[in-house]
Specification:
The complex is a heterodimer of chains A (282) and B (306).
Chain A lengths: L1 H26 L2 E2 L8 E2 L3 H8 L1 H32 L6 H13 L2 H12 L5 H8 L11 H29 L3 H9 L4 H12 L1 H16 L3 H6 L9 H10 L5 H29 L4
Antiparallel strand pairs in A: 1-2
Helix pairs in contact in A: 1-13, 2-13, 3-7, 3-10, 4-7, 5-7, 7-10, 8-9, 10-13, 12-13
Chain B lengths: L12 H6 L1 H4 L7 H32 L4 H4 L14 H9 L2 H32 L5 H13 L6 H10 L6 H5 L6 H13 L3 H9 L3 H12 L1 H17 L2 H6 L8 H11 L6 H30 L7
Helix pairs in contact in B: 5-16, 6-10, 6-12, 6-13, 6-15, 7-10, 10-13, 13-16, 15-16
The chains are: A mainly alpha (282), B mainly alpha (306).
């Protein structure tokens, strides 16, 4: 009975989630052009190529910057928005839904909308800058600025998630502790930093892990806003470009995927070790 | 997950701000107090809401604008007329109606199967005796952490080898295994009191009847949560359909939008691209507006107890 009910799902997960992981490791040892019938086994050559070329510092650096800034940005801004949502005024239910909305929208659609806003010729941003007598920066052509642009949009899209999770955390804080501190004369800022922030640490830890995992997997926005990967080649995007872009380097792409998976695995293992103690799954 | 208000509050925060004085509880109506409420309560909320809405509003307004209204140095906020020419152009430049239909089929078929599989697997994990159930659960939990992104190349080779390139089943199949739905429903089933199954057991009802006549009816909110989150992610899914399709006949909306972007890459094309963006964004926005409490609950699951 158990197998009759669970087997289809387990087989699918096995075939399309676990089996590819093993295959990826095998492919990463090949010198193989996608679409070609023949491949040569080259052992660890793809990894050596990656780590000894400029790619390593460029791709790993871009990944690190993108991940750290988007995680930090959406968590800090998310906490600020959560504080605003936690105030006792009308309209917070609506505002809560509103700030969460971008999180569920298509990354492709959102990316196009923002690409138009950032357009150096006809975008709103260029128009605002002209009002201040400034020229619009070349957001798309400049490698560094294109990374900044993608980060801004990514944070816009994801901070609502952090805000809603932080809001739930804030609302579960023990009321009596806050009231006692207020009676003792602690002002809002002190109550926030000395009571709320420490008590929110399980929420912060949870968000740190989940947003880090999703930032490392961010693809839609990056692909649509910077189709050529100019300065925005994170690990996932580089793996895509190498296999499905101009080069069709399947083996090399697989090696990058394996590196990405290793990083994700480390984060996940860390999470599983802490999560048992710190976050309750009811 | 116990949201009591089911409807989305539709009154705008701006209107609230204006009527703040009227709705304020009977605290002193002093000017200073009022200013403080507006500055610390409403202002941040309005600001946050605007930051979200203005870009989307801009998308909608621009989708009605003619090239002449976009390729200009002095920006016009409102379109001259609500004409749908950009939508018509988007539809004729690329087969947009086909993309829309493909997205609907992929989302409907994919989500239905995934939800069914999640219900069955979660029930089996909680209510059916089987050795190594915990090991199996851990394997599902780990699969939850394995992103589809790292598997795209092997899955591409596999599906292309099966003849699934440029087919709808090729788009749907690799995503069907569901770790998320299984996990979420398992957590919910564990909270059900065992007494509700005892009566059925005495009646001699088999697992199949227990599942559909007892467990499913009391789990509608959780199942709705799983279903909605699945619908949203199927509709928005990009990387896999992008790789497995290269012919317009089987592309989904997000992939089709990429195709449109390639053919409208000059300044005059922005209106058309915004029309395309409206078509991919607005359906999900409407679903979200109507059923947001399930979606928010599902997507933030695991963050706090419950």
């Amino acid at each position: 009975m158990f197998l009759a009910m669970a087997l289809p799902n387990l087989v699918l997960i096995g075939t399309f989630t676990y089996w590819p992981l093993i295959n990826n490791i095998y492919y990463s040892t090949l010198d193989w052009t996608l679409g070609s019938a023949s491949a040569t086994v080259v052992g660890l050559q793809n990894y050596v190529t990656f780590f000894t070329s400029e790619d390593a510092s460029k791709v790993l650096g871009t990944t690190a910057i993108f991940t750290l800034v988007t995680v930090g940005g959406s968590m800090v801004l998310g906490l600020l928005v959560a504080l605003a949502l936690n105030s006792k005024v009308r309209g917070t239910t609506f505002a809560r839904s509103a700030v969460f909305a971008p999180y569920v929208l298509s990354g492709v659609g959102v990316g196009l909308v923002w690409l138009f806003i950032f357009d150096p010729g006809y975008g709103v941003l260029a128009w605002i800058l002209r009002g201040f007598g400034q020229q619009s920066p070349q957001w798309i052509n400049d490698p560094q600025l294109s990374l900044v642009m993608v980060i801004i949009v990514y944070v816009w899209k994801n901070l609502g998630y952090c805000a809603v999770v932080y809001l739930a955390g804030l609302q579960s804080l023990p009321r009596d502790v806050m009231e006692a501190a207020a009676l003792d004369g602690a002002n809002t800022a002190r109550r926030f930093f000395n009571i709320s922030v420490p008590l929110l640490s399980p929420t912060t830890f949870f968000l740190l892990i989940t947003t880090m995992l999703s930032s490392l997997q961010a693809f839609d926005l990056i692909r649509i806003m910077t189709p050529l990967g100019n300065g925005t080649s994170t690990l996932i995007y580089e793996a895509y470009l190498q296999a499905f872009g101009a080069y069709n380097r399947a083996g090399y792409s697989a090696a990058i995927s394996v590196i990405l998976f290793a990083i994700l695995l480390i984060i996940t293992v860390l999470q599983l070790r802490f999560v048992e103690r710190k976050v309750h799954y009811s | 997950m116990s949201a009591s208000s089911s409807a989305v509050v539709v009154d705008s925060p701006q209107a609230n701000a204006q009527s703040a004085a009227k709705h304020e509880p009977p605290r002193p109506f002093s000017k200073a107090n009022l200013i403080r409420t507006v500055a610390t309560g409403y202002l941040p909320l309005i600001l946050a809401t605007l930051v979200v809405f203005l870009p989307l509003l801009w998308m909608l307004l621009s989708s009605f604008k003619q090239p002449g209204e976009i390729v200009t140095m002095d920006l016009k906020i409102l379109p001259e007329s609500l004409n749908l020419e950009n939508y018509a152009t988007a539809m004729t430049t690329v087969p947009f109606a086909q993309f829309f239909a493909n997205s609907l089929i992929v989302t409907a078929v994919g989500s239905t199967i995934k939800v069914m599989l999640a219900i069955l697997t979660a029930y089996a994990l909680v209510f059916v005796r089987f050795p190594f159930k915990n090991v199996i659960f851990v394997l599902i939990l780990v699969a939850l952490m394995v992103p589809a992104q790292v598997s795209i190349l092997p899955n591409y080779i596999l599906i292309a080898g099966m003849g699934g390139k440029n087919t709808l089943w090729g788009i749907i199949l690799p995503g069907l295994g569901t770790a998320f739905g299984t996990f979420l429903l398992r957590q919910h089933f564990l909270t059900l009191p065992s007494s509700i199954l005892e009566a059925a057991e005495i009646d001699g009802a088999g697992h199949w009847r227990r599942l559909w006549q007892i467990i499913v009816p009391v789990s509608v909110p959780s199942i709705a949560t799983v279903a909605l989150v699945t619908v949203v992610s199927e509709w928005n899914d990009y990387i896999w359909p992008l790789i497995i399709t290269d012919r317009p006949e089987t592309m989904t909306l997000p992939v089709g939008l990429t195709l449109l972007q390639n053919s409208e890459s000059n300044g005059a094309g922005w209106g058309i691209l915004m029309a395309g963006a409206v078509l991919v964004i607005v359906p999900i926005l409407l679903v979200f507006a109507a059923l947001q409490r399930y979606i928010v609950a599902g997507l933030t699951q695991g963050s706090v107890t419950g």
